[in-house]
Amino acid sequence: MPNYRIPNNANNDANGMWKMNAVQRARQGSEWPNAHIPYTPSQYYIRTCNGYTSTITDGTNTNCGTSGNGTYQGSWNYSSSWNNCDAIGFSHQYTGSNAANYKLNKISIGSGIGAWTGNFGTYISWRAKIYAGFGTATNTIVYDSGTVSTIQGCNCIMGLNFYSSICGGYDNFMMLALPDATGSADPLPTLSWNTGYTVAFAYLMMNGQGRSQQSQGINNRAITLNDGSTVTQNHFNVGSYSDNSPFGSWNGTSGGSGGSGQFPVLGYMM
Amino acid sequence: MANPVNVVNVAKLFGKNKTTRPSGTNALVDIMPEVLSNYVHKVNQIIVTNNETSTNNCDVRIAIEFNGTVRYLAYDITIPYRASLSLLDTPLYLSYDSSAGVGEKLQGAVQTPNEIDIVVSWEEISDVA
Question: A109, A87 in Cβ contact below 8 A?
Fold first, then answer.
């Protein structure tokens, strides 16, 4: 216990037993330590590619969904002749002390096109999983969205709609919110820094197509959080697909430069 | 006698103690039981300790709850990490209200879960043998 009446705030040496009067005097003298404000996670976005004809932005917001930042390259749907599943591996490096962990809560994919765009009342079924480590072969499933039905619409940002080509602009991306313990979905898992994970998306319905994109991929993408700490996202190719259908197929999201596929932006609470 | 208890004619006196580590965020929890009929509680000591070994200071609230109404003895007092606060300089009496059919009790809340330990020491006094 310090040998003076009030603690020295600068030295954090308030250890000891105190009476209310001492606390009051210390407060009046601006020497009582300030309250600790627990770290509160916020929404952030980190891109895996630069965008094609227009640049994708990330950080506290993203323009993923803005017309023109994807390409027409490739298509996919729930069909034996098309890829209906895609996955990407990721891990995060963190430089700071406040955020103990993070959650992946949003994924982006190319816009829907083709036959399922008959009207805005049409729901598109999909499913997403998160695996520990890189790959879907023998890895532990830490999250399963179950079957999700998302209605078509023109607002392709922030998970409001499944973006439809009825609105025009096949080269848009859309951001899908992963359900958090709603319906048959698992709770979003708490993820650890410097640890590899894989997120996979699959269409669960036929009669439609979704665009992929040419990623012009980047790696080691770093963003700065509000408290000044830095998160660097590394992403990786996934070469092993052998989970149950529809997650047993293969597709080509690339963690390297110049690749193509899905997941141009990933959204996190961190 | 009975309610209120006549402390001149004490028939029973039990020394009691309760320790609590609140696990919610700013959510009041009981840190001592409600006073029962024919009893009065003489609270001798309330010690609040920040058990963190890191540098996390933490705010604490201590209140008297009676029949759903909460009145605070202390509100958002910052407890520095590894420090303790002796909240009472003199004893505090909590009683039972026979007209309402309920007694008073102490409650506590903390800013950050599991960072604060609250120790309450009291005497349960009754004049009914």
Answer: no
Interface test with A, best of B52, B62, B84 (most A CBs within 10 A): B84
The pair of structure tokens assigned to B77 is 């007092």
User: Which residue of B lies nearest to A98 if distances are taken between CA atoms?
Assistant: B56
Task: Give me the DSSP letters along A177-215.
Answer: EPPSSSTTPPPPPPBPTT--EEEEEEE---S-EEE-EE-
* CB-CB under 8 Å, B78 with A34: yes
Average the pLDDT over B4-31 and give the result. 94
Distance from CA of residue A219 to its chain's centroid? 15
Looking up tokens 């026979």 gives B98
Between A50 and A246, where is the model more confident? Answer: A50
B-chain CB neighbours of A32 within 8 Å are 78, 80
Name the burial class of residue A31, with classes exposed (0-12), middle (13-18) and buried (19+) by CB atoms within 10 angstroms of its CB.
middle
Q: Give the bridge partners for A235, in sequence order.
A: A90
Structure confidence at residue A77 (pLDDT): 45
Which superfamily does A43-269 belong to? Answer: PHR domain (2.60.120.820)
From A17, A20, A35, residue closest to B57, measured CB to CB: A35
Residue A80: pLDDT band with limits 50, 70, 90? very low
Which residue in the block uniquely carries the two structure tokens 């929404």?
A43
- pLDDT computed for residue A212 by the predictor: 60
Q: Residue A183 is encoded by which pair of tokens?
A: 């319906």
Residue A99: what pLDDT?
A: 87
pLDDT (0 to 100) of residue B115: 93
The partner residue sitting opposite A15, judged by closest CB among B74, B78, B83, is: B83
The answer to whether the beta carbons of residues A134 and A196 sit under 8 Å apart is yes
Q: pTM of the predicted model, to two decimals?
A: 0.67
Confidence band, pLDDT 50/70/90 cuts, at residue A46: very high
What value does the mean pLDDT of chain A take? 77
Each domain of chain A, given as residue ranges in start order, spans: 1-36, 43-269
